[in-house]
Amino acid sequence: MGTQKRFIDWPGAALVTAATLGALAIGGLLSPGSADPWYQALRKAPLNPPDIAFAIVWPVLFALMLAGALMVLKEAGTFKRASAALGLYFTMLAANVCWSLFFFGFRDPPVALGVLVALWLLIATMMLRFALHSPRAALLQAPYLLWVTFAAYLNIYVCLFNPNAGAA
């Protein structure tokens, strides 16, 4: 038996790519960093990185997310066969954007922390689903899971040391 060459589902790949780039762009627009006077005034964690670190890390993480999702799609052969894994992927992208919306848009770090916990669980579950199609695709998500874990530390610090940050 020869190995069957797998071709990617191009409409599915276009959808995954557009959703990923859209989430990256929306998250970037919602996250002004130190350009936001509200954020600049917050007491931040001792290990809070400079804005440039976020500008470097996020595109790299999104590239890894996209690469993993495309690997899953290619291994599955069709979008339909990858739908459980990619459904988690799309939900994870939405949660990622929601964190930016709640933290920076609504300036509500406690709610953003709840979104972050949900995001962490989505990433972990997504990794398990990705592994069914491609263990390498799942491993590509590990840096993202670690970064979100670090982001939880940063978010918790803001909640603890800025008690009025989430007040309406």
Total strands: the figure is 0
Radius of gyration: 17 Å
Q: Considering DSSP H and I runs of 4 or more, what fraction of the residues is helical?
A: over 70%
What structural class results from the helix and strand content? mainly alpha
Estimate the global geometry from the Cα principal axes: elongated
Number of helices: 7
Q: If you average the pLDDT, what whole number results?
A: 94
Distance between the termini: 65 Å
As residue ranges, the low-confidence spans are: none
Relative strand content: under 5%
Order of helices and strands: HHHHHHH
Q: Major sheet, described briefly?
A: none
Question: Can you walk through the features of this model?
Answer:
The protein is mainly α. It is built from 7 helices and no strands. Helix 1 packs antiparallel against helix 3, helix 1 runs parallel beside helix 4 (83-105) and helix 4 (83-105) packs antiparallel against helix 5. The longest helix has 26 residues, at 51-76. It is elongated, with a radius of gyration of 17 Å. The protein starts with 9 loop residues before the first helix and ends in a 7-residue tail after the last helix. The mean pLDDT is 94.
Summarize this entry quickly.
The protein has 168 residues and is an all-alpha fold. The chain contains seven helices and no strands. The protein is elongated, with a radius of gyration of 17 Å.
Task: Write the topology of this structure.
Blueprint lengths: L9 H21 L6 H5 L9 H26 L6 H23 L3 H25 L1 H5 L2 H20 L7
